[in-house]
Amino acid sequence: MIDMDIHSEHQPLVLERPQHIISRKRISSAAVRVLYGLREAGYQAHLVGGAVRDLLLGGDPKDYDVATDAHPEEIRKVFRTCRLIGRRFVIAHVRFGNEIIEVTTFRGGGTEGEDHPEREVEAEGLVLRDNVFGTLEEDARRRDFTVNALYYSIDDFAVRDFVGGLEDLEKRQLRLIGDPDQRYREDPVRMLRAARLAAKLGFTLERGTEEPIGRLANLLDGIPPARLFDDLQKLFLYGHAEKSYEQLLRLRLFEHLFPSVSINSDSGQPYAGALIRAALRSTDLRVAQDKPITPAFLFAAFLWEPFQMACAGIDIHAEGAMADAAEIVFQDAMERVALPRRFSIVTREIWELQPRLETNSPSRARRLMRHPRFRAAFDFMVLRAQVDPLLRPIAERWEKAQTCGESEFDALFRAAPAVKAGPASLPSEEEPPAKRRRRRRRRVPGAPAAPAD
Ligand code: ATP
Ligand code: MG
Q1: How far is the CA of 143 from the centre of ligand 1 (A)?
Q2: What are the tens digits of pLDDT across the range 440-453?
């Protein structure tokens, strides 16, 4: 039996096994093995975080977190397949098959802001490093939202709640534990987590939790771009991308992720927002259908408008000009969100193929279809056509081209659709130079007749 009273200042609210719906059958076998492994070695073992929250809501957890009183080195001794990672917090990753369970030692260490050799805090309140170990209750109080601080113990199968998480779960609301201002200052990414979890769970933000976000959103600008990329993936690659986007817009957080996108300004282009929304919607659909998705495609949509602006100022016919424009856009964007190179290369290819999709030559069209990024570029053109009616004939032609026979294929591309080239659209290579120049006097970037976002 766990003796919680020794350490706890307060009694938690306890839901005994018959009072809740979490059964071991619904927990992944890897997580169950970790929980029992710790218990058999004489340690406490609790499932915590999103897994308990989602199981109580009747859902299927995306990953499992385990909290224990075993210290990192002790966890490593229990599991052969354990790796210790992280500096800000040391976390143990225990692997079973292709599943990784995150195991953390209870964190604590007295009142916030108190000096401690294992905690580093910046003047602004940002916590740089925190490896102060504590009790179960202290661990609960250092989590972000109350609904994320519920513990399911493998000892008695009860759920323990120190912070009112069960009540908030009932109310379907996210409430930060402790003083919201201070908790956002400690870790501004919690603002993104608020937007993401509100989107994912369909929860509202409790008033005190929502209120400081407007004032503190600029603290996100100090977060390392690599960490923001990690959180961006969680926002947009798990089937609730469009809702996440809505929350980010509503809370005015999106502009801190992509400051170069004009939907952030009052004179913003409805086109940019509509394209992003179409991309997110299609990503959600692909997730629902278990189709592969890539951040490269999403970034193509997020940064399409800045890319068009960059192209507007240069001669895009010059060798490498589009690549240079893309580079400028990436460099600028990556001051906030670090898109790894393996993705940005693909994003650039998707962009560079856009004008080539306007070809009127059957042989070029055939070659294009063999390009490794053809499919992604085509999908992107379909999105563009959703918000720019002028591009529909191109998208439709390629749609047909992928299923039709040889002779029909040739006819499709010889009968060129009457399309006015958009920004960053190159005229087809068959046209005389004079016509090219005329076309390059393009309309305002990103401003075709498009539905408002
Ligand atoms: P998801 O279902 O998307 O995984 P989650 O709440 O489990 O949501 P994780 O990133 O897996 O999110 O984090 C696991 C748990 O760790 C959270 O539920 C929360 O208790 C705690 N946690 C995560 N990030 C923070 C943070 N920035 N500040 C405080 N606690 C955090
Ligand atoms: Mg989780």
Answers
A1: 8
A2: 434 344 333 333 33
